Amino acid sequence: MNLKNIIKGSFVLGIASISLIACNKDDNDNLPEKVKLLIDKDWKIKKASVIATDNSATSVYKDCMKDDVLKFNTTNYNFSDGTTACDSTILPYFSSTYSINTATDSLFLKAKTTNHIHKMKILKLTADSLIVRWTDDVNSANKVVKELGFVNK
């Protein structure tokens, strides 16, 4: 192989590498705006409520929720109970896949060990605030509407 071919090959390889890096960097640019607002943040619980049929809210927030974090990337989520453990029947603590329907503001969190999917309505989503509401139907005899408010910290 002569020096001219080596230089050409190195140049082509260098351009290809730069193009590949640039494509990876821009992957999030193709995501819907609501997904961009959701991902790569530490969402901490600010409020937790049970919603009655008259739409009144009763707080179920506990001090142990202060260190709980919900994180999303482009395909998965992790809802972790912090170092101070909470009652796992109040919140769906697990990690798995999720999907979002931006047209209906719906967030679907798949349970880790079952086929159950928590279907949540996004009531508010900004760079600093996330509020979701869902009917917790894991126990079919006791369906409860719950609402969580998160802040990005």
Average pLDDT over all residues: 81
Main sheet: strand order: 1-3-4-5-6-7-8-9
As an assembly, this protein is single chain
Biggest sheet character: 8 strands, antiparallel, barrel
Number of strands: 9
Terminal CA distance: 56 Å
Element order, helices and strands?
HHEEEEEEEEE
Secondary structure category? alpha+beta
Count of helical stretches: 2
Rg (CA only): 21 Å
Overall geometry comes to globular
Unreliable stretches (pLDDT < 50, length at least 5) are 5-24
**What proportion of the residues is helical, as a percent range?**
10-25%
> Beta fraction of the residues?
35-45%
Structure characteristics:
9 strands, 153 residues, 2 helices, globular, alpha+beta
Describe the structure.
- This protein is an alpha+beta fold and 153 residues long.
- Helices cover 19% and strands 39% of the residues.
- The chain has an eight-stranded antiparallel beta barrel.
- A hairpin with a 7-residue loop joins strand 8 (129-136) and strand 9.
- The longest helix is centred in the N-terminal third of the chain and has 23 residues, at 3-25.
- It is globular, with a radius of gyration of 21 Å.
Write the layout of secondary structure elements.
Layout: H1 3-25, H2 33-38, E1 43-51, E2 57-59, E3 69-72, E4 76-80, E5 95-101, E6 106-110, E7 117-125, E8 129-136, E9 144-152
Antiparallel strand pairs: 1-2, 1-3, 1-9, 3-4, 4-5, 5-6, 6-7, 7-8, 8-9
